[in-house]
Amino acid sequence: MTIDYHVHLEEGPYSSRWLERTSQALEFFQPVDATSQGSKEEMTFQLQRLTERVQNGCYSEEWLDLYLQQAKQLGLREVGIVDHLYRFKETRAYFERFMKLDDSEIGQLQRYWLDRVMTENIDTFVSAIQRAKEKWHREGIALKLGIEADYFISGEMELTSLLADHPWDYVIGSVHFVDGWGFDNPQTEHLFKPMNPQALQENYERFFMTVENMIQSKLFDVVAHLDNFKVFNYQVEDQAFLKVWYERIAQALTSTQTATEINAGLYYRYPVKEMCPGPRFLQTLLDYGVIFTISSDAHFPDDLGKYTFANTDLLKSHGVQSIVSFEQRIKKFIEI
Q1: Taking a C-beta distance cutoff of 8 angstroms, is the pair 107, 179 a contact?
Q2: Residue 241 burial by CB count (10 A; 0-12/13-18/19+): exposed, middle or buried?
Q3: Residue 52 and residue 21: Cα distance in Å, rounded?
Q4: Residue 332: beta bridge partners?
Q5: 150-177, pLDDT tens digit by residue?
Q6: Residue 156: which residues within 8 A CB-CB, separation 6 or more?
Q7: pLDDT tens-digit series, residues 50-73
Q8: Residue 239: enclosing H or E segment and its boundaries?
Q9: What is the enclosing helix (H) or strand (E) of 324?
Q10: How far, in Å, CA of 163 to CA of 269, rounded?
Q11: In angstroms, rounded to a whole number, what is the distance separating the alpha carbons of residues 45 and 32?
Q12: What is the DSSP letter of 8?
């Protein structure tokens, strides 16, 4: 048995690709009869099902039930559902302060993105997960309420205020922006291409510096995908540079007793095709005794649990005996 502590219910922008991927998820749980495939009747059924999904929204009991179904099928012990802080309208001022949203090309792309992902209300999300906890408990699975909060240097006070007054079981910290640039947004991937090795390394350094500051802020129970600047497979070749930063981040995690995760999302959803952290970084974290949780980083119910058992076994093979979970922000350890 294992856990999956980084699971999302939805993500925009709402494109034709989003509709296709949502349809695939629905088909995974409710396959169409083979005899009707390719028929007009099948198309009508698919459209009706998608319409209901869009109208009911990602916090509906029907959508959550698909995650529960998958968790039961896999035999997961605990599942933590989170949403990105940038999904919530109440956080707009925070992101407008730190994101590049001017009239430049990147600013326009990022404003387009923010306007299309920031569609929800935080209280609606919290209420939906809290209501679902009892149902999941009856099915033998502990459902946890989490939030994934973007960290920006000098934004600690504002972020503290945004996170206050909600019954989080845990708070995940993550870095998706360097100097206001959302580097993991496919719309802005092209900004990597003109970077020479020195410029790329300088950006990695700013990313790692932000990660280190995030950990030292002590705002978070878990810090996510520690090396996700590699998302589009633009890699630094200087291993000595990476070693220094791997050790600095490991030291920050151990000194603050902050957990991190093995995150599978980059492996199955992005060009880098590597777990987060990568092998060398993972070994450094293990050498320093960092504590871990396990994460699929799923954004659809059929991705819940992806590689969580494999990554649990990987930790076991390195001598790790327990992984961490949380309740009301109190750390607990689960033997593996």
Answers
A1: no
A2: middle
A3: 15
A4: 325
A5: 999 999 999 999 999 999 999 999 999 9
A6: 217, 219
A7: 999 999 999 999 999 999 999 999
A8: helix 239-256
A9: strand 322-327
A10: 28
A11: 9
A12: -
- Rounded average pLDDT over 215-238: 98
Roughly how many angstroms between the first and final C-alpha of the chain, as a whole number?
8
The two three-digit tokens of residue 259, written as one number: 């957990």
Q: What is the DSSP string of 267-310?
A: HHHSTT---BS-HHHHHHHHHTT--EEEE--BSSGGGTTTTHHH
Tokens of 16: 């034709």
Q: Any residues with CB less than 8 A from the CB of 190 and at least 6 apart, and which? A: none
Burial class (CB in 10 A: 0-12, 13-18, 19+), 199: exposed
Could you tell me if 145 and 134 are in contact, meaning their C-beta atoms sit under 8 angstroms apart? Answer: no
CA 223 to CA 218: how far, in whole Å? 10
Tokens encoding 133: 């906890």
CB 201 within 8 A of CB 245: no
Q: What is the dihedral of CA 318, 319, 322, 323, to 10 degrees?
A: -10
Cα-based distances in Å from 42 to 51, 87, 282: 14, 33, 46
